[in-house]
UniProtKB/TrEMBL annotation, chain A:
Protein species of origin: Ceratosolen solmsi marchali
Keywords, sorted A to Z: Hydrogen ion transport, Ion transport, Membrane, Transmembrane, Transmembrane helix, Transport, Vacuole
Keyword Ion transport applies: yes
Keyword field contains Transcription regulation: no
Pfam families: ATP-synt_C
GO cellular component assignments: proton-transporting V-type ATPase, V0 domain; vacuolar membrane
Name assigned to this protein: V-type proton ATPase proteolipid subunit
Automatic annotation (TrEMBL), chain B:
Any Pfam family the entry gives: VMA21
InterPro entries: Vma21
Protein name: Vacuolar ATPase assembly integral membrane protein VMA21 homolog
Biological role stated in the UniProt entry: Required for the assembly of the V0 complex of the vacuolar ATPase (V-ATPase) in the endoplasmic reticulum.
Keyword Transmembrane helix tagged: yes
Native organism: Ceratosolen solmsi marchali
Family to which this protein belongs: Belongs to the VMA21 family.
Transmembrane spans: 12-32, 52-74
Membrane disposition: Multi-pass membrane protein
GO CC, any one term: endoplasmic reticulum membrane
Keyword presence, Membrane: yes
Amino acid sequence: MSGVNEPLPDGNPIYGPFFGVMGAASAIIFSALGAAYGTAKSGTGIAAMSVMRPELIMKSIIPVVMAGIIAIYGLVVAVLIAGALEDAKKYTLYRGFVHLGAGLAVGFSGLAAGFAIGIVGDAGVRGTAQQPRLFVGMILILIFAEVLGLYGLIVAIYLYTKQN
Amino acid sequence: MTNQKEQTELQVFKTVLLHCIIIITFPVISFFTSKIFIFDKLLGLETVTSNVYSAGVAIAILHIALGAFIYRAYFDTPSKLQMKSD
């Protein structure tokens, strides 16, 4: 590292970027965790249902796609934060905290949304095989679960725009 | 009968694959194209502002693609109910 002997300015400690890096990492880690749970849980439902009703596979893929979108939310925030990371000399501690908060906001919202999508997708797909009119209800519930992740994304982007 | 069934299966696979590719690639492409060409070069915005706007564009494209997939899945699937006989 260049300029080790130069003292860092006040408010720019050497560990400042640590928080930003952790924010970027937690954004994608927790979103991917939620998306993986949603994919796996609704995938078991699809696999169980398709044995008897293989013509419904196209309809029942929707929870899996929605779980994948949760991971894209995390990816967007992680890319935004990673693009704003800098050397400790130019990176204030405040920005590190803001980036950590942004990453945790989208990460845990994505985790929660992924759990909801997984459970709703599993039960909804199994139910749709027996009563096709349930499909509209399943889509609505899935959208409301997906929106939880979107709220986290909005808060994360709003935090990301905070600068000093 | 079996031939036709396989064809429809291939059709379904093609449709799902096409939509998955659209949903995965279009937001990424639109993020970087809108950032580099529209918000940075054409409008000359700051880094943070252009990042936020292009993220918004990518998310909007993503939801349009998801809506197209749900529409397709809802209206393309044969709605006739196969009664189970046992």
